[in-house]
Specification:
This protein has 310 residues and is an alpha+beta fold. Helix content is 29%, strand content 35%. It has eight helices and 16 strands. Strands 5, 6, 7, 8, 9, 10, 13, 14, 15 and 16 form a ten-stranded antiparallel beta sheet that branches. Strands 2-1-3-4 form a four-stranded parallel beta sheet, sandwiched between helices. Strands 11-12 form a two-stranded antiparallel ribbon.
């Protein structure tokens, strides 16, 4: 099988030696071509060309940002060409998508799992989320966020540019700092998800699976019923008091996740589409990547959009 292996050399949790071990294992069973990414969206460009270049499989080593780029590239495969299948090997700090698939968090162990799946012909089709606005038309794999979490992502990207590593501790530090500074106390969001629109929302998430993210090894689950095989779920924070927000976040850490009904928030389950808008531009992210400020975004569930080997 001809395989394209897209490697992010800046992946935060792998070393040169680890990458050499992984490439050696893949090359023993696949006709593999290795390409390192050199700039933002390079992985998307490589994945988009994979079918035309004769590759049957695309693999990637990197974090959730690399995964998002590859997925968007694969979904742009020309209609007259067979879209390659996809396999993921974790190399980032959170690896939410990869861990949600049940792939091991250790990159070498994950490589073994992928090779076993290839030998067994084991794969699955998953749904994706799609966003559209005046500025966007792209897919996300596990979440999109308006407000607080996007502010956190933006600030972490700034910290990384200053030389800090994107660790779970850094995300937690930034989230707490923004929370107590009062940055989330902006009820400018409106969620329209069938029925009357809900105004006065401080922070909104759209998820394609659970969890939303991880606090180290602990999953945060605002929408615990969300699944790759269903439509989109959504969460909206409608009260920003310190006490209530802290309680809501603590409930997300329980094994069963946040209850579907409770004080200070709203949830929606298995949606084909929804819209989130704001009375002024707010920070927006997909799959942990800051996209900029937005005032309105439409969300759609795309059934069986991607074939994954895992």
């Amino acid at each position: 099988m001809r395989a394209l292996f897209i490697v992010n050399p800046q992946a935060t949790t792998t070393t040169t030696r680890t990458r050499e071990v992984i490439v050696g294992a893949l090359a023993a069973e696949l006709d593999v071509t290795v390409v390192e990414t050199a700039y933002r969206d390079h992985a998307s460009e490589l994945a988009r060309k994979a079918a035309a270049d004769g590759f049957e499989l695309v693999l990637s080593l990197g974090g959730d940002g690399t995964v998002n780029e590859v997925v968007n590239g694969l979904l742009a495969t020309p209609d007259d060409l067979p879209r390659p299948r996809y396999a993921v090997i974790p190399g980032g700090s959170a690896n939410v998508f990869i861990r949600s698939l049940g792939v091991p968090g250790d990159p070498v162990e994950a490589t073994g799992t992928v090779l076993e799946a290839i030998r067994a012909g084991r794969e699955r089709e998953i749904n994706l989320g799609r966003i559209s606005s005046d500025q966007d038309d792209r897919y996300f794999t596990f979440c999109a966020g308006f407000g607080w979490d996007a502010d956190v992502v933006q600030q972490v990207e700034h910290e990384r540019a200053q030389g800090r590593r994107a660790t779970p501790a850094l995300y937690a530090e930034v989230a707490v700092k923004l929370f107590f500074r009062g940055d989330i106390r902006d009820p400018s969001l409106r969620v329209s998800a069938g029925g009357p629109p809900r105004d006065g929302v401080y922070f909104a998430l759209v998820t394609n699976t659970t969890p939303w993210t991880y606090a180290g090894a602990l999953p945060l689950q605002p929408t615990p019923a969300s699944r790759f095989e269903l439509g989109l779920d959504a969460f909206a924070l409608t009260n920003s008091s310190h006490a209530l927000t802290g309680w809501v976040l603590s409930q997300m850490l329980f094994p069963k996740g946040l209850p579907a009904i409770g004080e200070g928030y709203l949830t929606w389950h298995d949606l084909d589409s929804l819209e989130i808008s704001s009375s002024h531009p707010r920070a927006f992210q997909i799959d942990g990547e800051y996209l900029g400020d937005r005032e309105q975004v439409n969300f759609h569930s795309i059934p069986k959009a991607l074939r994954i080997i895992c």
